[in-house]
Amino acid sequence: MSLIDKDRFNKLYDSDPPQYSDAIAIQKELKDKVVSKNGFNQIKTVAGADLAILKDEKKLVCGIIVFSYPELNEIERTWEVVDEEFPYIPGLLAFREGPAIIKTYEKLKEKPDVLILDGHGIAHPRGFGIACYVGVLLDIPTMGIAKKRLYGTHQEPRDVLGSYEPLFSKNGEQIGVALKTKKKTKPVFISAGHKIDLSTSKKIALMCVRGYRIPEPTRLADKYVAELKRGLANNA
DNA sequence: GCGACAG
DNA sequence: ATCTTGTCGC
What we know:
Blueprint: H1 6-14, H2 20-30, E1 45-54, E2 59-68, E3 74-83, H3 93-105, E4 114-118, H4 130-138, E5 142-146, E6 164-168, E7 174-179, E8 188-194, H5 198-207, H6 216-235
Parallel strand pairs: 1-4, 4-5
Antiparallel strand pairs: 1-2, 2-3, 5-8, 6-7, 7-8
Helix pairs in contact: 3-4
The protein binds two DNA strands through residues 50-53, 55, 88-91, 93-94, 96-97, 118-120, 123-125, 129-130, 144, 146-151, 183-184, 189.
């Protein structure tokens, strides 16, 4: 993260009531760093990341699993534990989970072509969700798959696997899609993070669906951190 | 002022 | 995210 003064980031976390206003300012500044063009040719691997909270320890456990694409065979998985230094504030999720994800990502031997995050990318009130945050700071292709809408308006997609409706910002720009990944379930929200476009993000999300509403990378990373949490709880 | 509000 | 039993729909 050489894009912003490291001191500025530290202040963000050190001050007791975390500086939300500066976190927002940082998002507005970094928003212009986002690249919406694909930063790759062929996608051979994708990865899913997720977190769990170790309530007792005031820590966060992050797990990332890398898969071959489009087969989705697991290639590698790794994890990391970090201190919980920022609260969950809608719109500022990246400041809470971003550091843990970045630290875990750096431990990967096999860097994925695209990293899928649990949350939004561009589909954010300031156009800089967690997928953009992680993508820009690491300068890697990222996309977001969220279970709930955070920002924007959309119509309900038909109840057919693969159908979707555009997600629009207040300015009328398309910032993502509400995608039906399974019949009789609510759609998931796809948006581009960094170095990737929306159509490619949507294509990847759909290619990663294996009978469940949540695409495999995210779904399995979720199970992974749940296991890690249990293991760490017993050990402690 | 009143709702909405990723994980 | 986390808590937490039964239960409605496919």
